Amino acid sequence: MFISKSFIPILKNNPSEAKIKSHQLMLRVGMIKQSSAGIYSWLPLGFKVMKKIEQIVREEQNKIGAQEILMPTIQSSEIWKESGRYEDYGEEMLRIKDRQDREMLYGPTNEELVTDIFRSSIKSYKSLPQLLYHIQWKFRDEIRPRFGIMRCREFYMKDAYSFDINDEEALFSYNKFFLSYLNAFKRLDLTAIPMAADTGPIGGNLSHEFIILAETGESKIFTDKRIFDLNSDGTKLEKKSLEDLRKKYEQFYSVTDEKFNKDEFEKKVSEQNRLKTKGIEVGHIFYFGDKYSKPMGGSVDLPGGKKDFVKMGSYGIGVSRLVGAIIEAKYDEKNEVMKWPISVAPYDISIIPMINKNDTSALEKANKINLEFKKNNIETIIDDTDENFSSKIKKMNLIGAPFQIIIGKQTDGDLLEFKELGKETKKINLEEIIKIIKEQKEKN
Ligand code: P5A
Q: Same structural domain for residues 289 and 373?
């Protein structure tokens, strides 16, 4: 992409209305544009990042055997009346009437709709388990939308739903998502910690929030520091291995505000390991048994001829919120440098030729190099404008491709000035640069 042809409306200064760094950066580099309170358009740069996050989340869902569907944003109130949540959900639900005067709503979540889909087709235990997910816009009429896309009214969520024959199998499904979440966040280069959490309007009594640490986060957390050293490497998709994985995390005290108990915290965690801090909730999983299947009649035939209601769980990831969460974790505000993880970077490398009116040789060289990158599926952004050098660098540092090449007077022969953001500049040839970037991309 050439800067001169791109739609990346960069602002000279930080917008004053933004209070946290992710909101500032997203407005500053034109990733989003507010259209009304808590509702945003996604411009090319923001959209590119969000789509890459979505794809990683999708791949990790597919790996545990979940099947993708797509449910609509608009739902009928009927199914919500069946489950009993129509009144309970309160003012966060955006209620609409169609021209026949039918009560509709913009879906804040999909437990009812997916239960309706399930009950109309699945009749026997032989078809279980079923793990279904979709990635779709949600609407919650938050009273105080804030921090840009972090707490907004319209947001993009991956929500999955599991259907099982009994509690034991349902917990196996729950643990599959537990693993899938750890793996997805790892690919996004985030350390997200599972914390025992409250279930709120979704219901049930087993729940974990996945939280990344950030001073600007809205969730208060209390945890044992040792939980940060754990990882999910090598875990197999088997009942026992997944149970062990969850136990490995649950052995450390790690809870959100609502679940906090001072005595328990002090008893279970030695003083030097206690951490009280704030974080951003990027995912939330729930087990609620037959909370929806019972009132809505979602049952299956059991082996002995009896029938029972299916046991369900639901599993959400804030795909659009993750764009902001990654910025909160990675943006160096002081030096105004954003380095996107290569797995979701809008571009892999920026090429900055120093151009003046009489000499376009640097741009020609940039074009040549660009062709080689293209052949190797490396995405580039090239500043082909005649702005001065320092403002070009500033701009590219905000756009955040993790690698940069500068083509200027110093560039002689085959050696290029190459740097990975935050590291020293090196002089190496194009072949080596391609190799470095490809290696990093393949790791993901
Ligand atoms: C789980 C999937 C649910 O809705 N039903 C389906 C369950 N869970 S949740 O915790 O309420 O939301 C899941 C994730 O969505 C993100 N999120 C938001 N993102 C931006 N703005 C909001 N207002 C907002 N509300 C929720 C969070 O990442 C949350 O973990």
A: no
